[in-house]
Amino acid sequence: MLSRWMSGSSRNLDREYNCTVRLLDDSEYTCTIQRDAKGQYLFDLLCHHLNLLEKDYFGIRFVDPDKQRHWLEFTKSVVKQMRAQPPFTMCFRVKFYPTDPAALKEEITRYLVFLQIKRDLYHGRLLCKTSDAALLAAYILQAEIGDYDPGKHPEGYSSKFQFFPKHSEKLERKIAEIHKLELSGQTPATSELNFLRKAQTLETYGVDPHPCKDVSGNAAFLAFTPFGFVVLQGNKRVHFIKWNEVTKMKFEGKTFYLYVSQKEEKKIVLTYFAPTPEACKHLWKCGIENQAFYKLEKSSQVRTVSSSNLFFKGSRFRYSGRVAKEVMESSAKIKREPPEIHRAGLVPSRSCPSITHGPRLSSVPRTRRRAVHISIMEGLESLRDSAHSTPVRSTSHGDAFPAPGRSGRVESSERVAVIADENYSPADSVLPTPVAEHSLELMLLSRQANGAPCSIEEERESEAGTPAAGEAEEASGELRALCPGTGGLGPAQAEQVNKFVLSVLRLLLVTVGLLFVLLLLLIVLTESDLDTAFFRDIRQTPEFEQFHYQYFCPLRRWFACKVRAVVSLLIDT
Fold first, then answer.
1. Which architecture, in CATH terms, is 209-332?
2. Where's the FERM domain (predicted)?
3. Which of 51, 168, 179, 416 could share a disulfide with 339, CB 3.0–4.6 Å?
């Protein structure tokens, strides 16, 4: 029986698991790993396959069965992190955007970052005005199809490719004009470098959006960039906080807290609500990693961070990689022949699908725009694989983040340090071109989160997804809980009271447990006959002898007397 159990255990340890990793060019890398293989082993395999040395900027992302995304932790077992059944599917993505992508040492690294930012542009994470959008798209064309050739590129050739979630004829003409007249002669490497230099100047460069709500119930997107923490509401960046101003990040349940210390010792606390506790924990871990990577001078300065002030409560996490300054110093020491780069042509793919099978949004009447939107969304299925941190759920964003109407928007109180600098109207996003000159959008993410309908059918569907009255009451209760003097004890406030009571009970329980352990140790010291060196040294100290004869012995006699009195009383009765 024992030998059978041992053989079964050895088979489990030797079991191999198939892993498929989707790369930035939409190709796939397949390998097998052992049960106890760490994340670092899989990551090293990928980097060897890509011939990549500047690998600290990249990571592996996966989705759990609850549709919540995670970054693979390199110090832990891959199999233990993957809650799904094998074979495992993951994605290779940029995790830490370079502060200056043009300063990267090797061309292969710049090319991979270029592919990531191209995905960001397509999926609506990188916002820009129309002129910048046209220039970025022209750089992509030049890098991937080369110089303009009248024989190969007929009129309207730029409309065959989709660089953004939505296009307009004017934007496509501008892209083709720049490609024809301004970029001729640029090599792919030069075009990619110019693309990176331009993208780096945009406010939303490196944005990894996490959908949340503020205390007023308004939809917002939190993100960590190379330069600091940002908050986006619709098409506006309402907060930008530098990394050296962020003093602490913590979470409790679905609530995320950001502690900020600004000039003149001004301290504020920003509070947001994630859709689920798992999403909030993921947001917190991303914040801890980004702050350590961009802020610290050395990896030896990294410390284990707790999500709670109490040592026995909350999650503990530690960033395990190198910091940005160390990565740059290491990159400067690279000396090898530049590796060969196999660039993928600009062909229809999950990242940039062709739109020749359907008309542009701007040429479709509003009554038909819903059907066209569905056809384009079929080409955006890659959001399930590449949209950075937004959890993909079966319900719409409107279900998780109800967007208040124009008349029903709640103004933030000055007494609460939360985002309320600018209010965003969903109607401002209903534009045929995603990158307007004077009103930047968060593309599809902001439209879905803020519930901006494009037709009567969409409006009906958004109404069908409106939360019930009970959920609205709960949202208002959360607001009352964080804003003093705004009402009675609501459900959210009651929940906070319950959490406080549970924290106090845990503290009392730990205190009682420690006292009980000390009491047992005291009894062993005074009453037992154990003659070990440890106990003998303690018993021979003057302090212990004084405590034993002056306090413990009288207390023991008093306690024994009381016990005898109670026993005799019980016998007499």
1. Roll (2.30)
2. 17-298
3. 51
Confidence grade of residue 457 (pLDDT, cut at 50, 70, 90):
very low
* Helices and strands counted in the chain (H then E): 19, 14
Question: What's the pLDDT tens digit per position in 303-336?
Answer: 888 877 655 567 889 899 999 999 999 999 999 9
Task: Please list, in sequence order, all residues whose beta carbon lies within 8 angstroms of the beta carbon of residue 248, skipping any fewer than 6 positions away.
Answer: 257, 258, 259
For the chain, the domains span 12-94, 101-126+128-200, 209-332, 503-558
Q: What is the CATH number of domain 101-126+128-200?
A: 1.20.80.10
In the predicted structure, residue 481 carries a pLDDT above the cut 90: no
Q: What is the DSSP letter of 304?
A: -
| CA 436 to chain CA centroid, nearest Å | 27
Other beta carbons less than 10 A from residue 358's beta carbon: 15
Q: Which residue has the higher pLDDT, 503 or 64?
A: 64
**Buried b or exposed e, range 241-280, using 16+ CB within 10 angstroms:** bebebbeebbbbebbbebebeeeeeeeeebbbbbbbebbb
Topology of domain 12-94, CATH: Ubiquitin-like (UB roll) (3.10.20)
- Report how far Cα 240 is from the mean position of its chain's Cα atoms: 17
Q: Which amino acid is at 398?
A: G
pLDDT digits (tens, 9 = 90+) for 147-175: 999 888 888 888 888 899 887 889 999 99
Residues in Cβ contact with 160 at an 8 Å cutoff, skipping those fewer than 6 apart: 354, 355, 356
Identify the pLDDT of residue 139: 95
Which token pair is 108?
Answer: 């292969």
CA distance 136 to 201: 12
